[in-house]
């Protein structure tokens, strides 16, 4: 079973991140990033080598479909923003209750959002 994790990242100080978040970022198959360059700074700081995929509020339906395909193929993903928790005003909006199509896809396939 695949999992899509929504992971909060530090706002300012790279040390303001939990151990669970670091573990998840190191264990997933891909990290979906608002800006891969910004996320890479955090990942390099903690020597995390997980591959990143650009995914942000301007990503279109094609990118959402690619992400859904990764989940359908059994890949575990983490979704991060540049700082803080991905939410309604940014890229996570496509996976929140206000946008039921991807959310329904995730629910039907029993993917967990942690």
Write up what this structure looks like.
The structure is a single chain. By secondary structure, the protein is α/β, with parallel strands linked by helices. It has a single domain (3-113), classed as Cobalt-precorrin-4 Transmethylase, domain 1, CATH 3.40.1010. It has helices at 19-27, 36-45, 61-72, 100-108; strands spanning 3-6, 30-33, 51-54, 77-80, 112-113.
Sequence of strands across the biggest β-sheet: 3-2-4-1-5
Structural class: alpha/beta
* Proper CATH architecture: 3-Layer(aba) Sandwich
Helical content stands at 25-40%
- Spans of at least 5 consecutive residues whose pLDDT stays below 50 are 108-114
Which key phrases capture this entry?
114 residues; alpha/beta; Cobalt-precorrin-4 Transmethylase, domain 1; five-stranded parallel β-sheet; 4 helices; disordered C terminus
Give a short synopsis of this structure:
With 114 residues, the protein is of the alpha/beta class. It is built from four helices and five strands.
Write the layout of secondary structure elements.
Blueprint: E1 3-6, H1 19-27, E2 30-33, H2 36-45, E3 51-54, H3 61-72, E4 77-80, H4 100-108, E5 112-113
């Amino acid at each position: 079973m695949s999992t899509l994790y929504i992971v909060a990242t530090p706002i300012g100080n790279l040390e303001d991140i939990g151990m669970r978040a670091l573990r998840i970022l190191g264990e997933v198959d891909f990290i979906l990033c608002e800006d891969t360059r910004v996320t890479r700074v955090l990942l390099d700081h903690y020597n995390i080598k997980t591959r990143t995929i650009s995914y942000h509020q301007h990503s279109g339906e094609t990118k959402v479909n690619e992400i859904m395909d990764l989940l359908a193929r059994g890949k575990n993903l983490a979704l991060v923003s540049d700082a803080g928790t991905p939410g309604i005003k940014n890229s996570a909006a496509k996976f929140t209750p206000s946008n039921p199509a991807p959310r329904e896809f995730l629910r039907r396939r029993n993917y967990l959002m942690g």
